[in-house]
Amino acid sequence: MERDPVAVKFTKETKGPVLAALLAGLSAHLGACSAETAGQAASSGDRAGSTRAGSQAQNGGAAEQVFHIATLHHDGKTNVNGAGDHSPEPFPATAPKNSGGFIVTPPNQKGEWSVRAFAFHPAQVVVRQGDSVALNFMGVQGPAHTIAIDGQQEQLSLKRGEVKTVRFVADQPGVVRFTSVGREPTMQGSVLVLPR
Known about the structure:
Layout: H1 5-13, H2 17-44, E1 50-51, E2 54-59, E3 62-79, E4 102-105, E5 112-121, E6 124-128, E7 132-139, E8 144-149, E9 156-159, E10 163-169, E11 174-180, E12 188-194
Parallel strand pairs: 3-7, 6-12
Antiparallel strand pairs: 1-2, 2-3, 3-5, 4-5, 7-10, 8-9, 8-11, 11-12
């Protein structure tokens, strides 16, 4: 039987007592949180509750963890001469080379310069092994994104104003990564799958 490449990669990268202890602690903490949430829901008669960073929905007895992930960019604008209540900020002598996800624009004739970084929000979500997962990608900033997700053969094409959903079962502990192709290195995220 062929092993899941995501699980194999996760195992190779995490051979250490520190990370093993961290995962065990997270797993125990989430178990306690889930038990507390279940107890509160049962006592209030509410069958749907919030778990971890997503919402939990019942589907034929199986829990589906639903997450809403927005495409964003963060902008920093300034001026080499200063402006208003801002002190002058020189353009960095060692400004990094632009990538699709991190863009530095040099000063214009007025001395204005800017930085833009694209990102997912949230960039990491946590589920348990065996959970059904729904990732709702929401096109907020950036006219279009092509999103690649580990384990998914087809890439997701997302335009501003659209919401597109990818569903999968987190059947192996490890990390499932998602990336906006061409907007690396900043626009990357992950689903952390903890052992049940």
